[in-house]
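ligand=pantoate
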Amino acid sequence: MKITGQKREVKEIVKQWRAEGLSVGLVPTMGYLHEGHESLIRRAASENDRVVVSDFVNPTQFGPGEDLESYPRDIDRDAAVCEAAGASLIFHPQPEEMYAGDACTFVDMTGLTAELCGKSRPIHFRGVCTVVAKLFNIVRPDRAYFGQKDGQQLSVIRRMVRDLDFDIEIVGCPIVREADGLAKSSRNTYLSEEERKAALVLSRAVRLGKDMAENGEKSADVIVKAMTELIDREPLARIDYVKAVNAVNIEPVSVMEPPVMVAMAVFIGKTRLIDNFVYEGEDR
Ligand code: PAF
């Protein structure tokens, strides 16, 4: 497995693979890899001849006062995870390699980014779409793999690929959880022992909402209210949002007409965590 920080080198390596008739999967990450990322890499390795993992803490998706500087980084550990999971190449650029000093072109999206994380983090999805579009152009993969934990991001990327005619299959992969239910996240490392316990309120709320939906509750408002009340009972939790939306276009819904994503962002102390479930209907 090779690590490079150079776009040019990635392009040359992928060109060589293409000449050999090999298929290519891309797993975009911001590094500090956990079992969630590992599951994406393993899936990509099972469906493609070669896998590129990008490992880049993308500055353009962090707003002022967010955790760009403190976001955890450990490329040596990431390299070991990638190698064990079957990656062939890590692209680990410096910000100057990704963005020219005078870069002024961005991929922006309306509609799908108006709610949920897009509302609380106004420039976030512009940064995500821009960096993912750049990664797609650098690697030109057949398939790209994203986790369902960032559920809105997955819908946004699918729409970008459709709207901009990228010839890439987007593969969404299930949320990977700790044994006690907490969704795996690089940001879990910020939590103190007490906060780590309090953070379980997110997965408990997901469990509650999912059970209500699967047991026939048709009102999204009733489900969101029950989840909100559960989270509000945890003293260390402060809700950013709990909301039911159509999972494809991210428009708010009040009826559980599939596909519905019930998503949340909750501060546990200073750490903002997200989680969600998708209701696909009774026959799925
Ligand atoms: O999900 C992430 O880690 C990031 O948003 C992504 C897709 C790698 C873009 O920087």
